[in-house]
Amino acid sequence: MKLSIPLRTRRWDDEIARLDPERDYEAIVYALANHVFPFEIIAAMEIAQLRTFTIPSISKLLHATGQYEREGPKRLDDTKAILNEIHRPGLESRASREMVEHLNRIHGLYRISNDDFLYTLSTFVFDPILFIEKWGHRAMTEKEKDAFYFLYRRLGELMHIRDIPESRAAFFAWRQDYERRAQRYARENEAVARGLLVAVQSLLPPALAPYIESVVVLLTEDDGFRAALGLREPDPNLARFLHALLAVYRRATRHVSLYEHRDFGETEIYSYYPTYPSGYDRLRLGPTKVLEILAKKGAAQAVAGE
């Protein structure tokens, strides 16, 4: 039996080079997430969730709801599924707008500051960029970085987030300033972060689960992030091993791409939702208690309109 090694070509780099990031941001990010940097981007998006917990005003709200501590795996599945349902059909489609409005209704039940919305939005723009700069098989181009900014700026507009900075550079400067002002340790940060880490551990083989905290710290290489979440410094021997492993990964993925000819988003790895083994109702995604409140409000409004 002949072993076929899927070699990386310039197919997707050339496709992206033909596109305009301000107009074709969805196509560029789609190519990056499904073919060029699939594992890097999905890992970065999980870290982006953790990064939001470094802001006490965000983590205190999440801790009060207990979503990550009590329903961690469901919260992971809901987040991934909601983003997929928003992005897959295209932001300007009816299905995507319906999903964004569903998300807005969920958020509308909480008192969330515009700055916290902005900071959360910034993590989806910059965490993939920062992660790929450290661990990707090549550097991202300015066009690719801009595509992330324009994509999430548009999503922010649809979510009615105000005062989104008018350029990627300005947005990054805002994020750095906000972290200086707002990022600090709080016990709620650590509680919510550990809830998410336990949820991730439940998805891993038992032999790997104990190392997830150290791996996250090593992948971010950000002391402010680590301290704000109360995470421990990893063992130096583990750090050396992981850096060596990542160096091998970077070299290998310069030449080999498992997703050169198929979409990562259509694989079992990406489409695995342990909370929803039989599939999900797209407009029933979200925290259980919140969905119950929204259902009661909808029923009351229907009665009032009769």
Automatic annotation (TrEMBL):
Signal peptide: none annotated. GO terms for molecular function: oxidoreductase activity. It comes from the Bacteria. Residues 67-250 form the ER-bound oxygenase mpaB/mpaB'/Rubber oxygenase catalytic domain. Transmembrane segments: none annotated. InterPro entries: MPAB, MPAB/Lcp_cat_dom. This is DUF2236 domain-containing protein. It comes from Polyangium jinanense.
